[in-house]
Amino acid sequence: MAFRSLWFWLACACLGCQAMGPQEPAEENEVVEAAQTAAQLWEQGQEAMRKSQPGLAVRCYEKSLALDPRLNRNHLSLAAAYLENGDDASACLHLQEYVGAHPDELGIRVHLADLQLRMHKLTDARREFDRCVAGAQDRQEPAYGPLIHCHARLMEIAEESEDGYGEHLHRGIGLSLLARQRGKLPDPEGELSTESLLCRAAAELTAAHEERPEEARPSFYLSEVWAMLDQRQPAIRFLKHAADKAPFSDMTAAEKRRLQVQCHCLAGEQQIK
Question: How far apart are CA 58 and CA 48, in angstroms?
Answer without folding.
Answer: 9
